[in-house]
């Protein structure tokens, strides 16, 4: 079965099963993340309370947990760590988006602890992923080249945006990083790279520059990945998390590409955001099978 056909099959199962995705996420992304999940026929839950115990309690009934700490405080950190621990104990998928890692000391410390807990998937742009590797495990990655072209600014970020193109990143660093923390790395950008550091490595090649034009589109991708990983692990036979992640990215970015190609939805950021939600719901499994560009790296 082709990779695109497998992606279409998983999407059909996601839509039929409607996984419950808990989002310990930031204020900026809550609205769009919830609506993206609903458009994809998943169920969102924004339970993030740490001290009150709601994040950990809800993680016990969720299909998976998506952690995005863009607007971080102590209570959010407690909730994130507690829900991640529940997922580890119950063998549920949890996805970590390391927003702003390396920019501020408190969030860098919290996210570093979460990486060391071994997320199922670590999803971020090129600058975030490279910085995560080099600051979390400096003894392994400090001197490893970040890119395949000379670039003195390679690991810097502009706010939460990447300063480097994903297709210039040294993927051997990403492979080694995934193997080190024991999960999947999903690097987003012009093209998206997914790796478990061993036998499964994928490029997803849908370039959708308009996804950068509305806030939290990248945050919402983490929630979609969570739902696909939860569903894929329950299929017969069970799918690897790397494969499910690549499928989720393909579905999401193909949705963006199809939206961008529609004149009624490409007038600007507002119409694109509206159209993106519509297309998430209306994109057919046949379109995913016929149009997805997923390449496995041998």
Mean pLDDT: 93
Main β-sheet, spatial strand arrangement: 2-1-3-4-5-8-9-10-11
Distance between the termini: 17 Å
Q: Class by helix and strand content?
A: alpha/beta
Overall helicity: 40-55%
Q: Judging from the principal axes of the Cα atoms, what is the shape?
A: globular
- Into which percentage range does the β-strand content fall? 5-15%
List the uncertain runs. 151-162
Protein name: hydroxyethylthiazole kinase
EC number: 2.7.1.50
Catalytic activity: 5-(2-hydroxyethyl)-4-methylthiazole + ATP = 4-methyl-5-(2-phosphooxyethyl)-thiazole + ADP + H(+)
Cofactor: Mg(2+)
Describe the structure.
By secondary structure, the chain is an alpha/beta fold. The chain has helices at residues 3-17, 30-39, 54-59, 74-90, 105-116, 126-136, 138-141, 171-181, 217-232, 241-261, 269-282, 285-291; strands spanning 20-24, 43-45, 64-68, 94-97, 121-125, 157-158, 161-162, 184-188, 192-195, 201-204, 294-296. 48% of the residues lie in helices and 14% in strands. The protein is globular, with a radius of gyration of 17 Å. The strands form two sheets. The protein has a nine-stranded mixed sheet with strand order 2-1-3-4-5-8-9-10-11, with helices on both faces. The protein has a two-stranded antiparallel sheet with strand order 6-7. The longest helix has 21 residues, at 241-261. Helix 1 (3-17) packs across helix 10 (241-261) and helix 2 packs across helix 9 (217-232). The protein is built from twelve helices and eleven strands.
